[in-house]
Amino acid sequence: MENVNDIPKIDFEKCTGCMACAMTCPGLAIFLLRSAGDMGYITLPYEFLPLPDVGQEVTTLNREGAILGKAKVTRILPAKRNDGTALVTMEVPDQWLLEARAIKVGEA
Known about the structure:
Radius of gyration: 14 Å
Oligomer: single chain
Number of strands: 6
């Protein structure tokens, strides 16, 4: 991107699925979605500490911050550099894939 405010564009011919783009995107605008039948997996940038644990239940929020419900953390990719961002993958009902955009760790 030439400007931090540009919309990210992914060249799928070159994409290897490493998720480095999501870890380094300064606007936290890149997230990954995967549908697997009735369940889906969302990988989101997460900049808060402490990171949740794999298997931990978190509250899933939509773009407006409204609670969608509970989700299970299935994977954590810690930041690789000081200027990078950790990624949290959570398992959600498939119908939440296009709605869920944040998590809240702890009590809702």
